Amino acid sequence: MRLDREEIATLIPHAGAMCLLDGVIHWDSGTVRCVSGRHRLPDNPLRRAGALGCLCGIEFAAQAMALHGRLASAGEARPRMGYLVSLRDVVCRVARLDRIAGDLVITAERLAGEEREALYRFVVESGEMALLEGRAAVMLAVAPP
């Protein structure tokens, strides 16, 4: 694994239990592939009434996008805040993530973007099955001078 959970937590604004990624399998200028087992934890902060719905996978994907932005920023000293502003073509193939026995593999591929925006395609899968996929538009804050 290229990065572990502790290293990830230093790169994204999500802390403690809200940091949902356990590791980075691969990343390059256009893509990041992460792994997580946090969907199985009974104290996952996204659970409601003991269940973790499939749409919660969007937060896993959003964290992968934030991590990719930071890794691909070529060493910017301060991370830029990003805001998820649009979701498109989201498809859920299961009702709940907490019932998935295997690890989640989260892939975020940057399709387009400039200094203030990015468009990503994301897939959350386990084993051979895509559980959740879609596209997300992210608005980035201007980097401080």
Textual characterization of the structure:
With 145 residues, the chain is mainly beta. It has one domain: Roll (Thiol Ester Dehydrase, Chain A), CATH 3.10.129.10. Helix content is 14%, strand content 39%. It is built from two helices and seven strands. It has a seven-stranded antiparallel β-sheet. A hairpin with a 2-residue loop joins strand 6 (117-126) and strand 7. It is globular, with a radius of gyration of 14 Å.
Helical content (DSSP H or I, runs of 4+) = 10-25%
Strand order of the largest sheet: 1-2-3-5-6-7-4
Query: What's the main sheet like?
Result: 7 strands, antiparallel
By CATH's scheme, which homologous superfamily applies? Hotdog Thioesterase
User: What is the distance, rounded to the nearest whole angstrom, between the alpha carbons of the first and last residues?
Assistant: 34 Å
Predict the CATH topology: Thiol Ester Dehydrase, Chain A
CATH class: Alpha Beta
- What shape does the CA trace take? globular
Low-confidence stretches: none
**Count of individual helical segments:** 2
| Residue-averaged pLDDT | 91
* Overall strand count: 7
Rg, alpha carbons: 14 Å
Helix-strand topology string: EHEEHEEEE
User: Helices and strands: which structural class?
Assistant: mainly beta
Short summary:
With 145 residues, this protein is mainly beta. It has helices at residues 5-9, 57-71; strands at residues 3-4, 23-27, 31-36, 82-92, 104-113, 117-126, 129-140.
